[in-house]
Amino acid sequence: QVQLVESGGGLVQAGGSLRLSCAASGRTFSIYTMGWFRQAPGKEREFVAGMTWSGTTTRYADSVKGRFTISRENAKNTVYLQMNSLKPEDTAVYYCGADKISWYRPNYWGQGTQVTVSS
User: Fold this and answer.
1) Burial (CB count within 10 angstroms: exposed 0-12, middle 13-18, buried 19+), residue 28
2) Average confidence (pLDDT) over 81-106
């Protein structure tokens, strides 16, 4: 099993920045990818950004390219999502996910953290 705990959400004005953290514990050696997903009210959960556990490959949704950056701190088994130039449409609950194989359908999920961007 892998446990994921997110932190760092909050309320920010449009144009501002936030950094989300996702700390992984348990059988982290089994992880191939970790990623960030978000779900806005009334919408399906969508992929935002992901990276291989090794850190060699990253992927981003078109809607966040150039604004969001995913990174990892090996010593802490923590993945970050730096979010800059935030827009009201970025408002959602953000979830961290991890999986042995899949980029887009992780088997392990965190509890989610709310990000609200005011206009």
Assistant:
1) middle
2) 96
